[in-house]
Amino acid sequence: MSSGFTAQPLPTWRRAVLKVGSSLLATPDGALTGQHADALAAFVTASRQAGREVVIVSSGAVAAGRGLVPPQAPGTGGTGLGGRQALAALGQTRLVGLWQTFFDAPVAQVLLTHDDLRNRRRYLNARTTLRELLALGAIPVINENDTVAVDELKLGDNDNLAAIVAALVDADVLFIASDIAGLYTANPRTEPSAVPVLDLDEVLPVHLASAGGAGTAAGTGGMRTKLEAAMKAAAAGIETVLFDGRDAACLARMADGVLTGTRLRAPRSRLAARKYWLRHAPAVGCVGVDAGALEALRGRGASLLPGGVLGADGDFARGDVIDIAFEGAPFARGIAQYAATDVRRIARRHTRDIDAVLGYSYGETIVHRDDLVVLPDPARLP
């Protein structure tokens, strides 16, 4: 097995985010290469054939841009922010083009900044777009919008972006492909006594302290950022897997559900973490529903559509947490896809009428089933 890592089962998953670092996509002189992407893409293809969904968070745009300009060109060394932004702009299409060569399915480029994920409305818009892409059978390839994200480009940290994306798309697991086999007790490149860490229940400060910085010239994140990403993912109930993305045999085993790397566990399941948050988040409004919607949400795990909505109380905005009530008794809670004023206008309407009534549409649901939790059984409900 790989570098002392013995085989263990992968966590059960249906949807995953795969983060691929620059070190796997760039040659030593900084040009883009598909040498290791081939095996990574084969893993994605095998997973999709098994009925799973994969979102790729890929670094490498700056490296791709560097390979397109003469070595003496200003800024190609990547030391200046403007130069790196220009290289990223040049390299984005090459990066997406590289991934497309490995798939028959369409590849969709999605560029995000952390501001897109902090702003609730933009967060929901990104979430809706990614859901639609997956429903269409596309493979989203996500990167930071380096050409405009000044602060994020300075950090250059797609590990943490991948963790945020994993929560955004409700992934079951975050796969982080690196140029090292997994987590060790110390840096194995400098400490011969370092031993593999196969399984970790919780990332602690001692683990962060033993992690180094960037491991290669092309990469901008090291093991520390991967552990930070794992902590973010764990908070959302998402496990993280660290493995060697250069090892084709390791990837072939992963396609069969076997890991030779490090498994970083989450304290509770993704669904449990999300339900816990929704149940305890303060609701800022309420929508009333009819008996049909009550049965659909409680009995069938459906989304809340406008046809079953009777009205809305409060002045909530899109993205706020709201209660869902039947005859005045709240029985569920979720994240509103529409503001209260919009809900009142489309209540009792068919989903096909939303665009005509509002002049725009955020989708057919008032509350999507992935953003909804049924509350403990209230005594007053039928």
Automatic annotation (TrEMBL):
Primary subcellular site in the record, as a coarse category: cytoplasm
Entry binding sites for substrate: S59, D146, N158
Pathway: Amino-acid biosynthesis; L-proline biosynthesis; L-glutamate 5-semialdehyde from L-glutamate: step 1/2
Catalyzed reactions: L-glutamate + ATP = L-glutamyl 5-phosphate + ADP
UniProt-listed GO biological process terms: L-proline biosynthetic process
EC number: 2.7.2.11
Chain positions recorded as ATP binding sites: K19, S178, D179, T220, G221, G222, M223, R224, T225, K226
One Pfam family recorded for the sequence: PUA
GO MF annotation, one: ATP binding
Residues covered by the PUA domain: 285-367
Tagged with keyword Nuclease: no
Keywords: Amino-acid biosynthesis, ATP-binding, Cytoplasm, Kinase, Nucleotide-binding, Proline biosynthesis, Transferase
Protein origin, superkingdom: Bacteria
Localisation per UniProt entry: Cytoplasm
GO CC entries: cytosol
Enzyme kind, highest EC tier: transferase
HAMAP family named among the record's database cross-references: ProB
Family: Belongs to the glutamate 5-kinase family.
Function (record text): Catalyzes the transfer of a phosphate group to glutamate to form L-glutamate 5-phosphate.
UniProt protein name: Glutamate 5-kinase
Organism expressing this protein natively: Luteibacter yeojuensis
